[in-house]
Amino acid sequence: MIDRIGGVQRIDAVRTDPAPRRASAPTPVGSDSISLAVTPLRAAVASSHASISQLQDLSRFVDSASGALDTVQSLLHDGTRRVASGETTWELLDQVDQIARAPKLSGESALAEGVTLRAGSHELDIRPVSTLDLGAIVESGRSHRLADVRPGGSLDPLGNRSAALRSIAAAMNEIAGVQSSLRVFRGQALEPLQRTALDDLASKTSTSRFDESDVAGFASDVRARMFSGEAVAGVRPDHALALLSPRRL
Question: Which residue in 11, 97, 235, 239 is deepest, having the highest Cβ count within 10 Å?
């Protein structure tokens, strides 16, 4: 869910404490349905899947935002070189805004518009990443932004090269801060919560008895669609149940 608070989006990821859930209607028995013996397994997977899916969406956004910020930093580095050599930079600024709008969360350009990410007890505020917000400096008693570093702008590199370079440097420092915050958020919030979600599902499934053949058939629909890299390290085989495709729930 996205709430706009003071012009900034708030993204609620997931809490680790279990919440009461309404009982779902029984699945009609048909030629392609899972046998009733697996109903408790299906219920266990369904009750954990919402939290896992939210974490997955948040993890994808962090990946996308991190990649976009890397590209923006590269553009600004090139902009520094071009301003120093007396070239124009306006097209680079348009590219910065275009790239920053690309990462989406719940259909919104959360990186460009600003967002608060929350996962468990961890919260991360990201200010808007755009040329209208980055690179704030004060020059001759007036406030300027990265968007002003263009021909005809108040920080036109041809007329005020030193101020233009200061604005670009300030923008790069701000983006570096966001990149660092995203790395910490992933390592201290997302990855531990991913493991907790899998442990929770494993605990639910281990406390019930299931027919082995039904479990084997049900687990054959596992899709390696959620975790990657360090996030999957140490995950036991029984945790694979958390990766079941939602179309089968």
Answer: 11
Q: What is the pTM of this model?
A: 0.67
How many of the other CB atoms lie within 10 Å of CB of 144? 22
Whether 149 and 93 have beta carbons less than 8 Å apart is answered as: yes
> How far apart (Å, rounded) are the C-alpha atoms in residues 33 and 146?
58
Q: What is the C-alpha to C-alpha distance for residues 198 and 48, in angstroms, rounded to an integer? A: 8
Task: Give the count of alpha carbons within 13 A of 66, CB side only.
Answer: 14
- CA dist 63 and 61 (Å) reads 5
Q: How confident is the chain (249 residues) per 10-residue block, as mean pLDDT?
A: 45 42 36 41 63 86 97 96 86 94 94 94 94 95 94 91 96 97 94 83 61 51 41 43 41
Residues whose CB is less than 8 angstroms from the CB of residue 230 and which lie 6 or more positions away in sequence, other chains included: 191
